Amino acid sequence: MDLKFTPEEEAFRGEVLHFLRDKLPERLSHKVKNGLRLTRDDMLQWHAILHARGWLANHWPEQYGGPGWSPVQKFIFENECALAGAPRIVPFGLNMLGPVLIKYGSEAQKQHWLPRILNGEDWWCQGYSEPGSGSDLASVKTTAVRDGDHYIVNGQKTWTTLGHYANMIFCLVRTNREAKAQSGISFLLVDMNSPGVEVRPIITLEGEHEVNEVFFNDVRVPAENLVGEQDKGWTYAKFLLTYERTNIAGVGFSVAALEKLKRIAGKVRRNGRPLAQDPQFAARLAKVEIDLENMKTTNLRVIAAVAGGGVPGAESSMLKIRGTEIRQEISSLARRAMGPYAQPFIEAALHEGHDEAPVGPAEAAPAASLYFNNRKLSIFGGSNEIQKNIISKMILGL
Q1: Cβ(93)–Cβ(170) under 8 Å?
Q2: H or E element in which residue 203 lies
Q3: Percent of the chain residues past pLDDT 90, beyond the cut
């Protein structure tokens, strides 16, 4: 693979940069670059801007609203968006459910749900993990029992990211208790406004309401909301997880975070010299940059395979492991660079319009919060330990 951009790809990069200069609101860019909390309206605003340009679902086929980009164009776009401080697109509808519906959904489901994902009419969340079923996802206990033209759903999901904003949730539910674990699971689309659905907040270590518990008590779901065949949901779940894990790698966001870390290391002084000249810090900085360059190459290979009709397998697990480790290392180094200023963080200072002065340099305000939030990266989407098992089975046959 030639890793140099062609003249055509460089021209596309210029087009993306021009678009970002013209259309990315400075207010949103400021919030992202300074680690301030994004609101629901902030995320929907950027969603709508990209949709208006036709660049929202950049990995969907053109017939369903995608722009028809090559893998390299997708890479360039995501990289430049991250460097410009664009908000991350909420992935659950676009990057997870969309590909599943395109591959396995009925024509009626595609015609109904895909346009609503694009225009922002539906905000989706993911109902996979349960209190006793996280990395062992095949052990899900939430049940769906067929009752005429409906399924009756009972159970609990947890760690539901942004579920308090969502009006729809795609769920793994057990529809056959007699079959072996993976064979008795179905993939169901549930309206969050249905009677019997309850959402309870979980406040994470850095003080943010990002995840939730979702309870289902005799929730009636139309049978037409079953994706694919009953009891075959494990196949669809695995397909979705390959997209989720590749997305968690967050190559573009690591590139942007590394650029910011370099600026901090060049500005902060220790023992009379820039931190970037400290041998130990410089060695860790160099190592994470080398790891990131290697991951960028792997990421290009994976998206090229997907563009050719393939489905990422062990590669998505590799990206998930390395991507999350790199993002954690960068946030750890940023926190270390801030020294004592990164120890406390003021919750109010992470919200737009606050009147709290930052403790120390402005870059210190989100350093601890981001560090704590990124601890979860190596766990969700299937823990890194589970990903190593997947790689062993798929590549080494162990």
Answers
A1: no
A2: strand 197-203
A3: 59
Within 13 Å and on the Cβ side, how many CA atoms surround 306? 27
Name the token pair of 260: 């910011």
> Catalytic annotation on 208?
no
Smallest CA-to-CA distance from 212 within 164, 149, 275 is with 164
| 230, 239 contact by CB (below 8 A) | no
For the chain, give the longest Cα–Cα distance. Answer: 75
SS3 355: coil
Residue 46: is it exposed, middle or buried by C-beta count within 10 angstroms (0-12/13-18/19+)? buried
pTM higher than 0.70: yes
Please identify which of the residues 244, 315, 329, 363 carries the catalytic annotation. Answer: 244
Tell me the C-alpha to C-alpha distance, in Å, between residue 84 and each of 94, 135, 255, 361: 21, 34, 11, 21
Q: What is the helix (H) or strand (E) element at residue 10, kind and residue range?
A: helix 7-23
DSSP state, residue 167: S
CA 165 to chain centre: 16
* Residue pLDDT, tens place only, 191-227: 999 999 999 999 987 778 999 999 999 999 999 999 9
